[in-house]
Amino acid sequence: MQPVDTGQEWDLPVIETVGDLASWLSLHLMELEWFADLKGLCYKLDRPKLQHYHYRILPKRSGGVRLIESPKRELKELQRRILSAILDRVPAHSAVHGFVKGRSIATFASFHAGQRVLLRLDLENFFPAFPAARVQALFRTLGYPEQVADRLGGICSNAAPCSIWKNRPLEIDTKSWRDARTLYARPHLPQGAPTSPALANITAFRLDCRLSGLARSAGAVYTRYADDLAFSGGEDFSRVVERFAAHAAAVALEEGFSVNHHKTRIMRRGVRQILAGIVVNQQINLRRGDLEILEAMLTNCARFGPESENRQGLPDFRAHLEGRIGFVEMINRAKGQRLRSLFETIKFEY
Questions:
Q1: What is the Cα 163 distance to its own chain's centre?
Q2: 108 close to 276: Cβ distance less than 8 angstroms
């Protein structure tokens, strides 16, 4: 093994042969080949019990299709081992705030508070944009021999089988359905695997380097949260922001990503500047309407019982409410504490 020079201090596990990889994962060689699936056998199977993933097809609010690919228990354990022993030891770019320990959606937005102009770009089909070949190349960059890297990449990638596309929901149009089937048929990072966020961040390191440099040259700051790209700056950046947006989209295209131009937003100081649901005009905060809706929901739960507000039939409505309150506390601690006090007056049956 010979990782890149910067990786000498990452203390990655030494795995020099396919046999070493099988032993490291506590698998027989045939089991390793089955989970890596380099020949794409699972793509051809029409038997869900023999496939490695559970699939859920969702329509996007903005149009198109999102496929949630959840690995089954055995494969998920292998992916978690790879994540904890290898991927978690490789640092992400400083501009990346999604799926990175110690960073959050709040830190992602905080860099852009009080700026004269804010530019927001959105990458299309983020996880499927990473082909399996690119993931395998990453493991080779980390120092693993080709045969080992190919199998590590195979365990962490997937091609959705044809059998899941038999019945098109009425809310999804024919073109979007056909495009999604083609997109997800290629081996890619599956949205739902524990390794995918870390692999996406590491593999996009060159993209983040180039966009950070581009932002500095224009007097701006850059951060990324998964597929959300944010740039902001003062008067100098405000004068060139339209042209800058085109340059940033071109860089993304050169790095293998497409920008969803329908979601591109240029927000100047005179309008409400929003990133991932967070208002950043002066300091980070939540939209007043969102806070009022949550407060009204908690009030109704306290007066009439939580069942009155659980219209979606969520199995753990209490955890759902606690999660939403925790998000508010992360952004606006004072308001979050008031909402938590209201939450504690709710009488749950369990």
A1: 26
A2: yes
DSSP 188: B
Q: pTM value?
A: 0.91
The tens digit of pLDDT for each residue in 210-251 reads 999 999 999 999 999 999 999 999 999 999 999 999 999 999
99-137 per-position pLDDT tens digit: 999 999 999 999 999 999 999 999 999 999 999 999 999
Q: Which residue has the tokens 């910067």?
A: 6
Residue 274 CA: distances (Å) to CA of 112, 136, 269, 270, 284 = 10, 36, 11, 12, 9
Nearest alpha-carbon partner for 326 in 315, 345, 339: 339
Can you state the angle between helices 205-217 and 196-203, rounded to 10 degrees?
Answer: 50
Interatomic CA distance for residues 106 and 97, integer angstroms: 9
152-188 as b/e: b if 16+ CB within 10 A = bbbbbbbbbbeebbeebeeebeeebbeebbebbbebb
* Torsional class of 85: left (φ above 0), alpha (ψ -120 to 50), beta (otherwise): alpha
